[in-house]
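Action item from last week, closing it out:
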Amino acid sequence: MNQEHLTTHLNPSQAAEPAAIPNLIARLGSADPRDRRRAGNDLIAAGPLAVSALTEALEDRSPAVRSEAARALGRIRDAAVAAALVKRLEDESREVRWTAAEGLVALGKDGLIALLRAMMQERESVRRREAAHHVLRALADGDLGGIVRPVLAAIEGLEPALTVPLAAHAALHQLEA
């Protein structure tokens, strides 16, 4: 990797320029983890302008790109990306699943609503169940704890495939009431 590429780091006003976003997305695939992180941080600084490109990057072949995109989206905290982060809870990469789960935690109620909807609509895979457990555990100690704990108990119970959709439905009903 050439030195010029490694030292390219935008200040927040430059990062907010839409023309810079494709280059920053490309740098998420850098072999240098520091360069990937700097590009991710610049995309975070770009905020809402970067959301669409970062959401597309969640589908990249590279787990490093998907993970950094999930991290950036979680830090931007745009509720519109919650469903895309939930989808990444099924990712083959454990790091991507973890980072997507952390993004959902950062989204709080909006992340929880997207997660509960997914938990109601289809049977949980082991991957998503583990990631959902992480999200619910992180939210259980906060303001959403009373809503989250029954779903967490269902995941930890004997028949989660049967009890989780019902618990998720009840929790979603409470959130939307």
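Closing note: The radius of gyration is 17 Å.
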